[in-house]
Amino acid sequence: MALLSLENISVAYDQQYILQDFNLSVEKGSLISLLGPSGCGKTTTLRLIAGFIEARAGKFSLNGKDYTHVPVNKRNFGFVFQSYALFPHLSIYDNVAFGLRLRKVSGAEIDRRVRNILDIVSLSGFEKRFPKELSGGQRQRVAIARALVIEPELLLFDEPLSNLDANLRINMRVEIRRIQQELGITTVYVSHDQEECFSISDQVAIMNKGIIEQLGAPAAIFKYPKTEFVARFIGFTNFITFDSRFDGNEEIALKVKDYMFTVTKHASKGEQLGKQGAIRPDDVVIGMSDEIEAGANRLSGHIKVSTFLGRSYQYVVETELGNFTVNKEMELPYLNGQEVRLLFPSEKLVLVE
What we know:
- By secondary structure, this protein is α+β, with helices and mostly antiparallel strands.
- 24% of the residues lie in helices and 35% in strands.
- β1 and β2 (16-27) form a beta hairpin.
- The longest helix has 18 residues, at 166-183.
């Protein structure tokens, strides 16, 4: 059952529309991430849900109630900001209790809720400390506790981990997912970091210029992007535009110049539209001509650029159909100018619009 629903929403600053006829549904108890480059409309969508801005057109519903014109102070939502937004002069206990005191909750109930939520975010014993005495990850957990203690109907995150270093981001995203699943709270999460979103989300909405290009489970989007934009955004760097395609029962045959390719049909891929193939650098097989036989889904070329990545080498291979980027783990790298052959496995090649 959808808890949150945005129907034909339009948002504009001055005369420039950021969202137009925008639609989104979020199931109760799920975590959905809005992912995309700067300016795609993800933060605008979050601010609209929070009540910081109002739509010019459309309807926002929550649990069957119309929230389109409900002011922000009447929405029982928890919001976790990028900058933590903690009060430096208040203790951790008082920071977390702040929203409850505004709501005139009794002292005994405040104490019960604050201590319970601090235990959930693993900060029991930190009640008397101040924000300056905590690490970045601990401060972010205080911000999460403050958002959760009011028992919100909806939890909103606006790039909450962007101020943390790489290792701490990994730890914190695990904590966020643990807390969200433990409490079963419906959550909307905004980020530009795809690994972060894919690791914690039930669903991901990839946005571009105010529209959702693809919405689905992280694994499905990662393996089977629907559009060229989504494919490029999530790491597909190799593209082939075919001249013609012929759909069979189990495979799609494609042709460009004198080269033949096939793409495997698979139920989990869904409908495969268009005549543009996409494949990740890790999925292209590279080898010498005696290792890879000539035939369909194969190209000959030579090494143009070689780059050491640590565990593997990355090659730019120049072929008759253009340059392709390929990764391979190997002890002795190929040399610039060396002749090689590429194999594009039919089960790894994806057709995008």
